[in-house]
Amino acid sequence: MKKLLALLFLFCNIFLISAQERAYGDGEYFKFRVHYGFVTAGYATLNVKNASINGKDVFHVRGFGETVGVSKWFFKVEDDYQSYIDKDKNIPYRFIRKIDEGGYTKDIQIDFNHATSKAIVNDKKHNEKTEFSFPKETQDMISAFYYLRNKLDTENIKEGEVVEMNMFFDKENYKFKLKFLGRETLETNFGYVRTLIFRPYVQSGRVFKEKESLTVWISDDNNKIPLLIKADLAVGSLKATLTEFKGLQHSFKIIANK
């Protein structure tokens, strides 16, 4: 009987550990090549590090992108996005957006108080602070991706299914929607990889051609790595292709090498 109970507890512990496994962690790093066809327009990186904010253990995620070469001469872009995400609750405490896109600049810090459901938006460029309310489990545009990597049930998701979540961006609450398109074996820089295809709904107009202009290929494994992003813009289209990665939490499954 003791052995039976011991085995039962062992299996339960193994199950709980596996259920709590994260898709990402300290040291994870992605680098993407942003390109129009064969022309490289720029590079973007995503980096995860352990940090602390207001006495809480968090993951500090930084996304940085910039144009290079000829593209930089025509249209200089330097975008810096950061999010401080609670390790256990998967919610953001702070979001930073510091951008320079052809002279269009923003320098904003958003501090989330989830106990009061209030967000303090600090517009450093205009030296203005404003307070907004937000719904429960609201994400910022960086934390949303990492939240989905941990929480989305990709094993049982059905083609055509739409996932929704609350998001706060700049000074506005809105519903972020993500549509599952299906599965595909994708040829990547690392070999052939089984992927999940998603379509985030975006705002049409100044940047994107229409609401369904963005398509994302994610590795169909426990890492859920973003491998390819395609965007149809108001003028032309571009791709972001993963070129480098390190610090993965799980093995990266490649069907066949190139």
TrEMBL record:
Species per Swiss-Prot/TrEMBL record: Aequorivita soesokkakensis
Molecular-function annotations in GO: exonuclease activity
Keywords: Exonuclease, Hydrolase, Nuclease, Signal
InterPro entries noted in UniProt: DUF3108
Pfam families noted in UniProt: DUF3108
Higher taxonomy: Bacteria, Pseudomonadati, Bacteroidota, Flavobacteriia, Flavobacteriales
Protein name: ATP-dependent exonuclease
Residues in the signal sequence: 1-19
